[in-house]
Amino acid sequence: MTKTAPPPAEPAADEAAPAVALHTGTSDLRQLLTRNLRTSGIYIAFVAIVALFAILTEGVSLSPGNITNIVLQYSYILVLAIGMVLVIIAGHIDLSVGSVVALTGAVSAVLVIRQGMPWWVGMAAALAVGILVGVWHGFWVAYVGIPAFIVTLAGMLLFRGLTLQVLDNISLSPFPSEYGKVASGFLNGLIGGDGYDAFTLLIGAIAVAGYAVSGFRTRVARVKYQQPVESFPLFVARVVVVGAVVMYFAWQLAHARGLPIVLIILAVLVIVYGLVSKRTVFGRQIYAIGGNLSAAMLSGVKVRTVNFWIFVNMGFLSGVAGVIYSSRSNSAQPAAGNMFELDAIAACFIGGAAVTGGVGTVVGAMVGGLIMAVMSNGMQLMGIDQSVQSVVKGLVLLLAVAFDVYNKRRAGASR
Question: Per the UniProt record, which residue ranges are transmembrane (predicted)?
Answer without folding.
Answer: 40-61, 67-88, 95-113, 119-139, 146-167, 198-220, 232-251, 257-276, 306-325, 346-375
